[in-house]
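Archive entry. Fields below.
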Amino acid sequence: MEVKTFKGGAHVPHYKSYTENKPITRLSLPQEVIIPLLQCLGEPCEPLVKAGDKVKIGQKIGDSKEFFSAPVHASISGIVKAIEKRTVPSGGEDDCIVILADDGPQEFEMKQVRDPENVDLEIYRKCVREGGLVGMGGAALPTHIQTKHDDGVNTLLLNGAECEPFLTCDHRLMLEKTEALVKGAELKMKSIGAQRTLFGVEVNKPDAIKAINELIKDREDMEVVPLAVKYPQGFKSHLIKAATGRDVPRGARSAQLGCIVRNVGTTVAALEAYVYDKPMIERIVTVSGPKVARPGNYLVRIGTPASHILKECGMEEIENHKLVLGGPMTGLAQPHLEVPIVKCTTGVIILPPEMTREWMDYTDCVRCGKCVDHCPMMLYPNQISIWAEKDMYDEAEKGDLMDCIECGICSYICPAARPIVHWVQRAKPEIKKRQRSRK
Amino acid sequence: MSYDQKLVLSPAPHLKAKDTVSSAMFDVIYALMPVTLVSVVLFRYYAVLLIAVCLVTAVLTELLFRKILNKPVTLHDGSAIVTGLLVALLFGPGTPWWTAALATFIAIGLAKELMGGLGWNRFNPALFGRVAVILIYPLFYNVTAAFASLRPYFGPIDTISQATPLAMLMQGADLLPLSHLFFAYAGGSLSETSALAILVGGIFLIYKKHISWHMPAAIIGAVFIMAMVMGENPLYHILAGGVMIGAFFMATDWVTSPITLKGKVIFGVAIGVLLMLFRVLLAPTEGMAFSILLMNAFVPMIDRVTRRPSFSEPKEKTVPLLKRPGVRKPPVHGVGR
Ligand code: SF4
Ligand code: SF4
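PREDICTED_STRUCTURE:
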C-alpha cells in the first residue's frame, strides 16, 4: 500500500482506542436543546419563531438572506422556551433558541422522497442549502456555497483522515455507513462536475479503508488514498498536498486546485438531505476521555447540552477537569457544562487534571528548533511567537503569521511551553485590521 | 448543578509533549556522565575538584545575576548545571581551580545572563568562558602566583596526566595508537579522555531527539575530508582534542546553533573546515572552541540565507494535477454528465 503524506507535522498520541471499536449508538433525548443561531462560518440567522411557539422536529426555526449562511432547525419537537444569550462552543455568549421537549413525535421520519439514482442537481443544491448543511469536520463552512459546477474542479476529495487524537466519529461513519458515503460522494461529484473521488483515510483505520475499497472496487472513478498517520493530516491544504501532490498557495480557489474537499460526515448528510429531506438535526459525536465510564460514538441531536451527554456517559463529577468540544489539539475548552453540541462539534473530550495543559509557566524560546522541524506550514513559530508576544505585528505579518493554520503542533511540542497558538490567535485580528486599513 | 463545577480553561492545544527545557537539560547531564566518570577515574581528585568548583560557581553566579537583574530564579531548568559541568570538562586536570571558577563566572554571568538569559545568548556560554580566560590570562599572571599556595595537592600531576595528544602531533612526537584515544587516554582536558564515552552520550542525545545527527556528522565529516586534503591523519584529528565534545555537545547547543537542518549542516561543515585550518596554520589546541564561537556569530546570517518559504507561498510552476506521475488512476471522463 502506497501511503501518502506531507512534509512536517508530528506524531501526537492517538488515544483512539477508547472509542474506535464502539459502534454508533443513539443517545437519549435531552429535556431541552439550545440551538445557536450562528452555527457556521458566516452570517447568523434570524429567528423564524418566538418564545411560546410550538415547533416540530426538523422545522426550520432560523434563516438568513445572506449567501454565506445556513439555516438552523428544531432538533426535537417542543415549545420554544426562550430566545436568549447562552454560552456557545465557539466561545462567549450568543443568541440561541431554547426548545423544551414536549410529547410530540421525537423521531425524524426517514421517508424516501427522492431517488438518489436519478438526481436533479438543482433540487440537490436546494436541499443542501435548506437542510442547513455545514462542514461537519470543524470548519463549518456552509456546504451549499460549494455545490455548483465549476470547470476547473475535476476531483472530489473526501476527508476521512481524522487526525485529531481521541476522535473516531468519522472512522465509525466510514465503517458503518459506507454505502451512504459512496452514494453521497457520487451525488456530490455530479453536482460539482468532478470526474473522480478520492477518499483520504489515515492508515490507522484499516477496517474503514477495506470497507470502502470493497464497495468501490468496480468503479473507475473512485479511489482510496491511504494517508500516513500524522497530525495535521486532515487539514484541508495538507490533505490536498498529500492526496494529489498539488501545492496549495494562499488564497487559492478550488478551480485552481482542481479539487474540493468535503468531510465524510457532511457527504452522508447531504445525501440524506436529498433523499429524505432530512435537515441537520443530529450528528455523530465522539465522547471520550480516560475517565469517562461509557465512552463512545453517539448520535446526538444538535443543541444537546454537554451536561446531558456526560450524564448519559457516566461522567458527572468533572471538577478540575477540562471539557473540550472538538479535538484536543484545536477544540475549545468550555467554561461549564451547559454548552450545546453544534453542527461542527466532532467530540466531547474530558481531560483529567493530569493530562491537561494548564497555563504552564512558559519561558523564553531556547531555539531548540522542534517547532520549526514540525510546523506543517513551514513557518518559524519560534520567531512568530516572539513577535506576537511582544505585539510586533508588522514583523509577524512579514513572517507569514497569517499563513498559520493554528494546528497547535508548535505549542504541543515546545519544551519551553510557549503558548504560541494563543498568541497567533490574538495577533491575527489585529493584523487583518491593519491589512484592511492599508487597502 | 453543572454550572458550579470548576473547569480548567486554557487555550488549545490541550495536549503537551513531555519534553521540557529542564528534562532536556537533565538529559544532557546524563549524556555527559560517561565522560565525566572516565575523567574522574583517570584524574581522580583533580577532576573532582574542578567539577565541584565549576558547579558551585555556576549555581552561585546564576543566583547572583538573577538577583541583580531582578529576574525569577531559574535554577530548576538545569542550564546552569549543564554550563558548569561543560566548563569543567573543558579544562585539563592541572588547571588551577580559580581559573576554572573565573571561566564559569564569565560563562554564566556575561555570556548568558547579561545577554538576556537562556535563549538570548549569542555565544556558547561554556566555550565563551573557556576562551575568555585564555585571552585574559596574561592579566592574571600575578594573581595566579599569589594564589599558588591555595592549590590543594592530590599527588604529583605528571604521573596521572600525560602530554596533550594534539601537541604531540604538532611537535612531531610519536603518535599515540588511535585505540588509546578512542577508549581512554589521560591527556588533555577532562572531556578529551575518551572519544567513546562522548559518543555514547551523543548517541543518547540523538536517540532522545534533543539533537539531530546531522550536525555532528557534518563536523566530523568535514574534519575528516579537510585532514585528508591537508595531508594529515584524519582519524587522529577526529579523536584527539575537542572535536568529539565540540561536535556532540558544544556546536549542537540549541540556543547558539542554526534553527533548520540545512543551517545546521552548513554550520557544522564550516566548523570542521575552520578547525582544521586553525590547527594546521595557527595552533594545535583550542581550535574547536574558537571555530565554534566564530561560527556562533554567523548563526543569524545562516538562518537568514537558509530561510524556507511558507507552505502557502505560491510556487513558480504548478504541476497539472492529472498529469502528475504518482496519481495512479487515469482520469475518467464522461462520468456524471
Ligand atoms: S505556527 Fe501555526 S501552522 Fe505552524 S505548527 Fe504552529 S500552529 Fe501549526
Ligand atoms: S519549540 Fe519552543 S523553544 Fe523550541 S524553537 Fe520553538 S518556540 Fe523555541
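CURATOR_NOTE: The longest strand of chain A covers residues 78-87.
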